[in-house]
């Protein structure tokens, strides 16, 4: 847990510091892009993980990093959590470059966190997160499916859904190698997903039926 909190604090401090720096310097020397990589700025693969575009971007990522990072740190070790974070983040930047123009600027820890989520899903999906108010395996698969659908639909914008999917897929083989019960845990995850969908369907039917009866009484 200490490693996760330290990582979160460093990212927050780095992001706030960058917000007060010259934007051109941040883009050319701290953010990741294929152009920066081709110019030999290899360090941007690392520094870009600690930069976030705005407060919502930062807070959202830190919430999920705390949830999945703490889970992995407790189940495995701080070293494995940190190794997975940086491995997933750096590799996601490189692979994402195949899908974007050379001058596309990428910042943020989202893809690295998706790597942690996939590993957490395969290591202990039933661990309950009070931050997310849900088992981490369920959150991981739901968030992945949401981003996969966004990629399939071709949704564009400032969010790199492709990088998120890549980060998650990177975490799958890592999680398999670190979990002896990954098959069982994957089945548990899909069972939770099915139950979640059934529950949503039931709630939707109740809401719709209540609404219909209300209309009839007017």
How do the strands and helices of this protein lay out in sequence?
Elements: H1 2-19, H2 23-29, H3 34-38, H4 44-47, H5 55-75, H6 78-96, H7 110-123, E1 128-129, E2 134-135, H8 136-153, H9 161-178, H10 182-217
Antiparallel strand pairs: 1-2
Helix pairs in contact: 1-5, 5-6, 5-7, 6-7, 6-9, 7-8, 7-9, 8-9, 8-10
Summarize the structure in words.
The structure is a single chain. The protein is an all-alpha fold. It has one domain (2-217): Rhomboid-like (Rhomboid-like fold), CATH 1.20.1540.10. Helices cover 73% and strands 2% of the residues. The protein is built from ten helices and two strands; from the N terminus they run H-H-H-H-H-H-H-E-E-H-H-H. The chain has helices at 2-19, 23-29, 34-38, 44-47, 55-75, 78-96, 110-123, 136-153, 161-178, 182-217, and strands at 128-129, 134-135. It has a two-stranded antiparallel sheet with strand order 1-2. Helix 5 crosses helix 6, helix 6 packs across helix 7 and helix 6 (78-96) packs antiparallel against helix 9 (161-178). It is globular and about 55 Å long. It starts with a helix and ends with a helix.
């Amino acid at each position: 847990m200490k490693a996760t909190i330290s990582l979160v604090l460093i990212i927050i401090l780095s992001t706030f510091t960058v917000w007060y720096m010259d934007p051109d310097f941040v883009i050319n020397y701290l953010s990741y892009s294929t152009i920066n990589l081709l110019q030999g700025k290899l360090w941007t693969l690392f520094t870009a993980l600690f930069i976030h575009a705005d407060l919502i971007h930062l807070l959202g990522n830190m919430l999920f990093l705390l949830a999945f990072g703490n889970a992995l740190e407790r189940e495995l070790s701080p070293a494995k959590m940190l190794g997975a974070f940086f491995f997933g983040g750096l590799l996601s930047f490189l692979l994402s470059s195949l899908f974007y123009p050379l001058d596309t600027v990428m910042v943020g820890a989202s893809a690295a966190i998706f790597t942690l989520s996939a590993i957490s899903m395969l290591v202990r999906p039933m661990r309950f997160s009070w931050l997310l108010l849900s088992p981490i395996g369920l959150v991981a698969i739901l968030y992945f499916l949401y981003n996969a659908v966004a990629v399939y639909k071709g949704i564009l914008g400032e969010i790199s859904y492709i990088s998120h999917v890549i980060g998650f897929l990177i975490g799958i083989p890592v999680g398999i190698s670190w979990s002896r019960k990954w098959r069982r845990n994957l089945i548990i995850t899909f069972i939770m997903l099915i139950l979640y969908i059934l529950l949503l369907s039931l709630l939707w039917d109740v809401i719709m039926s209540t609404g219909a009866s209300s209309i009839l009484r007017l």
